[in-house]
């Protein structure tokens, strides 16, 4: 069985991103290829902000997601519309909006909601964390 | 093909949740995925007629309701117990369900997303 995770809860206002991370670690421990992809929507896209600097004695959630993505080859998608409106910008969007900087953290990619629809249709279950 | 229910529960003006939930419903419909909506709690404010929000208050999402049929989103459910709806001018496209129908509705769908 393969899962897609839809995460909508803010990394600062909820534990959605934390709980989903724990779910992934548990899932891949038992079934290594059980997570097809993770789609961040609403305020959850703030997880992909490379400029956020959490205090050193707290978890760096963005880094924790990058590590789990790299270790288990799990794609991390941010909804492009939700991300851009919140200032999470990749290089091409930065050029498009004529900005001088980009803020998207590594291992995250901006995708449209169509990618979520595709994930829904190619995995057994979608689990929302909010 | 999975049948999806988008459950709107947040106020249309307190956050972007309602808007982003509706956006997902419209994208699903655009990709010809069967999708229905249900509204509860503060999201019911979406149904009230004659809304004139300022730019600071947010987009007038009520206007989207009239266009749902063009996306083949034909089912918008609310609970019958929301009696204030009867006493106020509201969008008439929603279907009222009694307690039992409301509760069984959620198990009719392969996936339910809440905003």
UniProtKB/TrEMBL annotation, chain A:
Keyword terms: Cytoplasm, Transferase
Presence of keyword Signal: no
GO term, biological process aspect, one: tRNA wobble position uridine thiolation
GO function terms (MF aspect): sulfur carrier activity; sulfurtransferase activity
Matching Pfam families: DsrE
Annotated compartments: Cytoplasm
InterPro entries reported in the protein's UniProt record: DsrEFH-like (IPR027396), Sulphur_relay_DsrE/F-like (IPR003787), Sulphur_relay_TusD/DsrE (IPR017463)
UniProt record similarity statement: Belongs to the DsrE/TusD family.
Main location per the UniProt record: cytoplasm
Protein name: tRNA 2-thiouridine synthesizing protein D
A cellular component annotation (GO) from this entry: sulfurtransferase complex
NCBIfam families named in the record: PRK00207.1, sulf_tusD_dsrE
TrEMBL record, chain B:
Protein family according to the UniProt entry: Belongs to the DsrF/TusC family.
PROSITE patterns the record matches: PROKAR_LIPOPROTEIN (PS51257)
Domain of life of the native organism: Bacteria
Protein name in UniProt: tRNA 2-thiouridine synthesizing protein C
Coiled-coil zones: none
UniProt xrefs under Pfam families: DsrE
Highest classification ranks of the organism: Bacteria, Pseudomonadati, Pseudomonadota, Gammaproteobacteria, Oceanospirillales
SUPFAM superfamilies: DsrEFH-like (SSF75169)
Gene source species: Marinomonas rhizomae
């Amino acid at each position: 069985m393969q899962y897609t995770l839809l995460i909508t809860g803010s990394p600062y206002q909820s534990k959605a991103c934390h709980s989903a991370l724990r779910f992934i670690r548990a899932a891949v421990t038992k079934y290594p290829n059980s997570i097809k992809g993770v789609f961040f929507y609403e305020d959850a896209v703030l997880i992909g902000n490379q400029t956020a600097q959490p205090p050193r004695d707290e978890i760096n959630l963005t880094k924790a997601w990058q590590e789990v993505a790299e270790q288990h080859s799990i794609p991390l998608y941010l909804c492009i519309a939700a991300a851009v409106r919140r200032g999470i910008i990749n290089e091409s969007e930065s050029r498009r909006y004529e900005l001088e900087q980009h803020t998207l953290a590594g291992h995250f990619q901006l995708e449209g909601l169509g990618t979520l629809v595709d994930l829904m249709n190619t995995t057994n279950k979608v689990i929302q964390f909010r | 093909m999975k049948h999806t229910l988008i459950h709107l529960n947040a106020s249309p003006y307190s956050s972007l949740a309602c808007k982003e939930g509706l956006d997902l419903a419209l994208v699903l419909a655009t990709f010809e995925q069967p999708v229905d909506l249900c509204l509860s709690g503060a999201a019911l404010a979406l149904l009230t007629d004659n809304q004139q929000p300022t730019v600071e208050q947010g987009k007038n999402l009520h206007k989207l309701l009239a266009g749902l049929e063009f996306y083949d989103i034909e089912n918008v459910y609310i609970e019958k117990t929301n009696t204030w709806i009867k006493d106020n001018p509201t969008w008439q496209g929603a279907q009222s369900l009694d307690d039992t129908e409301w509760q069984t509705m959620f198990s009719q769908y392969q996936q339910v997303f809440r905003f």
